[in-house]
Design a protein that fits this description.
single chain, alpha/beta, Rossmann fold, 5-stranded parallel sheet, 3-stranded antiparallel sheet, globular, binds BIS(adenosine)-5'-pentaphosphate
Length: 219
């Protein structure tokens, strides 16, 4: 199955991607994670992306489209994938559609996670990530047993640079201006399924999987 996950920053895309990719046995591909991996390795691309990410702006389309094209060419994406955080602009969506048409493997479904801005701010302000395994926690909604330590491997938890209050607000504006138009774009293409992304993680995952199972497959 070929899935795009769309939703505001903090809507829970990364959290739900884990449930969905496990259920459908497909790789979860996050452009944000790919940029952060480049940054951790101090590549030229990572350093260039950091300038945009730290202030809540989007990395330029041409850079982003190139890394997704390379990633989708990997063998594990041949039989399906879940894209988390890509596309984020209409030109990115058009590039993805062209790329998939060339491969003869169109998208099956776009799942929108709907959440309001107040919830986003509280989710992102309390998010903490493990510095070694990358597991995402929340100080109130999904806290680790020991403060500041990951339950999985004991790694130190850190706060993402772009989860500071002023950057969260900018990311929300950027989402409204540049990414929300994708909802109409995919609705017009009859690919859109939307679910409420409030409540317990497992309940949202159940709604997500139900909506995805119900969507018609394109091939
Ligand atoms: P990216 O990493 O994609 O960030 P984002 O879209 O802003 O999304 P987040 O990772 O912040 O949130 P999420 O929806 O995954 O939520 P999560 O599951 O972690 O992108 C970062 C930056 O990279 C962008 O700003 C941009 O600069 C660049 N970039 C990336 N892709 C790009 C592209 N295509 N084009 C251009 N630039 C690009 O959950 C958040 C928190 O809430 C967690 O703590 C979690 O535990 C908690 N939580 C989750 N669900 C619930 C729930 N149901 N109830 C309570 N808490 C919950």
């Amino acid at each position: 199955m070929r899935i795009v996950l769309v939703g505001a920053p903090g809507a829970g895309k990364g959290t739900q991607a884990k449930f969905i990719s496990k259920h459908f046995a497909i790789p979860s591909i996050s452009t944000g994670d790919m940029f952060r991996a480049h940054l951790a390795s101090e590549t030229k691309l990572g350093m260039a992306a950091k300038r945009f990410m730290d202030v809540g702006e989007l990395v330029p389309d041409e850079v982003t489209i190139d890394i997704v094209r390379d990633r989708l060419a990997q063998p594990d994406a041949a039989n399906g994938f879940l894209l988390d955080g890509f596309p984020r602009t209409v030109p990115q969506a058009e590039a993805l559609s062209k790329l998939l048409a060339e491969r003869g493997t169109p998208l099956d479904v776009v799942l929108e996670l709907q959440v309001d801005n107040d919830e986003v701010v509280s989710r992102l302000s309390g998010r903490r990530t493990c510095s070694t395994c990358g597991r995402v926690w929340h100080l109130d909604f999904d806290p680790p047993r020991e403060v500041g330590k990951c339950d999985v491997d004991g790694g130190e938890l850190f706060q993402r640079d772009d989860d500071l209050p002023e950057t969260i607000l900018r990311r929300l504006d950027v989402y409204a201006e540049q990414t929300e138009p994708l909802v109409a774009y995919y609705r017009d293409a009859c690919l859109l399924q939307s679910i409420a992304a409030h409540g317990a993680l497992e309940d949202i995952a159940e709604r997500a999987i139900e909506a995805l199972e119900a969507a018609p497959r394109r091939t």
